[in-house]
Design brief:
Layout (H helix, E strand, L loop, with lengths): L3 H18 L1 E4 L5 H17 L12 E4 L2 H4 L2 H6 L2 H11 L6 E11 L25 E7 L10 E3 L18 E2 L7 E5 L4 E3 L8 E10 L8 H4 L2 H4 L4 H6 L37 H21 L2
Antiparallel strand pairs: 1-7, 2-3, 3-9, 4-7, 4-9, 5-6, 5-8
Length: 298
Amino acid sequence: MINQAALARSIAQSAAALQSQGYCVIKNAVAPGLIHDLERDLEPDFHETPFGQGGFYGSTTKRFGRLLIRSQITQRLVQHLTVMGVVEHMLLPWCDRIQLNTTQAIEIHPGAPAQMPHRDQDMWRGPIGEVEYLVNVMWPITRFTTDNGATLIWPRTHGREALEAEPRTSPIAIEMEAGSALLFLGSTLHGAGANRTSRVRRGLVIGYALGWLKPYENQWLAYPPEIAKTFSPELAALVGYRQHRPNLGNYEGRCPSVLLRSHMPRRLGAIDALRPDQEQQIEAYLKEQVQSAEQDQP
């Protein structure tokens, strides 16, 4: 049974740290054994995936996505109660619902240089310092150390500090054991460290974004309806099978969750999915039209 009071405290403490520092660490978020089982599931993918190309992805780093179909264990990380609570606390002020932005496995090989410091919110080029667009969660598979490429975080470089040309703080390497989780905002300056060891560094990044943004990973191709039908309704909604008001991400004018039904009519009628303020505006407009038509009648 879930201790709701303890869960609420954990969410509040982590959210406060995230708001203050731009990052937080949830220690022992899951059992290390769960992460070891996940690594076993992903071992063929780590082995067979080619190295990346380009200065950002890195030619000494392997990356692959679609983790929800590679290991069912990923669902437990994606829907982790504390993580979801913190993410919703940070993002729901700017959206009706959150969405899964990406699930990506990362393997940094020996000799890999440090990644260029960056802010993930810059992928959308929206206004800076006003809105938080996403929260990322880094889950170590192997132990993260300063020497093997642990994620570098520049504390307090988030929010309006992202407008500064240079960070006011120095980076810190977030050392973690498997089972812990690093949360950081899309406005926080960060990057993977250099791997100066003889072993690979493995981890997962799971990202959540505002529901009205175009996600980094094309969720509908990653998880087409025949796959999404096997998900819980909550997980299916998280990967995009739920529209965002007003009418965003619809299918034939309906919530795309209709694609997950066992039977769907050949023809669908469009149904409004609007914000309350829009409904009020339309209702007032239609009322004016009726009154105007009545006045024009002889």
